[in-house]
């Protein structure tokens, strides 16, 4: 495995058409928005979930590419199984665990679980903690370029769930939340220092990350999410692990605006992306897609 030697920043653009990219359970599953500006939001957790799901599909059964954060069994159960499998001391509980045992468990998780090696995880819960890992890959909330306008429409269905409902009529009403169109921008970071010091995230893992971002919507289709597409992925590669430029300077190199005359964007072609390709010394710009 080849350790990564470079710091990276990246910018992704994705859009949604007639769908709900990330429903808010505290608001009746309406698409998330900033209430002051109307700008649409997609959480980092949502984006990382899609990356995890893609990796699990393409690397199923392959050593080193398990996914820890998923709904198969309780996390504490997984941690206990690691302690039992490696004959680590289970007599001491929680914070009283031997630091060497916690370290061994943490290193095992990093070697075997791609998502922990990439994003990190809090694994200090329960009686058999595996430590806390700060991942080298961090992704910010995605924000829509323009305000989005969530809508709730009424739908009908003919298949009733109970006999009592069946007797009340042939159809019943339901609700569906969506936005007609939204183009979102998300920014992220890859730290070579954290990768090499803590998790072992390597060049092969990095290439898989880019592939997963590009394809994260391709196997995540649903009627609720509508048509979602990854439109662009731009990468800034530093010549060093420490970095050659502040992230905000690089992010500001990419600007997007509506095309002249467009009032209500309804497609990706309603926008134009302007890129200042004159990079600071030691930074290479990569147009990945």
Tell me what the structure shows.
- The chain is of the alpha+beta class and 289 residues long.
- The chain has one domain.
- 27% of the residues lie in helices and 31% in strands.
- The chain is built from eight helices and 14 strands.
- Strands 1, 4, 7, 8, 9, 10, 11 and 14 form an eight-stranded antiparallel sheet that branches. A two-stranded antiparallel ribbon has the order 2-3. It has a two-stranded antiparallel ribbon with strand order 5-6.
- The model has no long low-confidence stretch (mean pLDDT 94).
List keywords for this structure.
alpha+beta; 8-stranded antiparallel sheet; two-stranded antiparallel sheet; 8 helices; flat
**End-to-end CA span:** 26 Å
- Counted by DSSP, the helix tally is 8
The helix/strand class is alpha+beta
Order of helices and strands: EEEEHHHHEEEEEHEHHEHEEE
**Proportion in β-strands:** 25-35%
Rg = 22 Å
* Biggest beta sheet attributes: 8 strands, antiparallel
Q: Percent helix among the residues?
A: 25-40%
The outline comes out as: flat
Please provide a brief summary of the model.
The protein is α+β, with helices and mostly antiparallel strands. The protein contains eight helices and 14 strands.
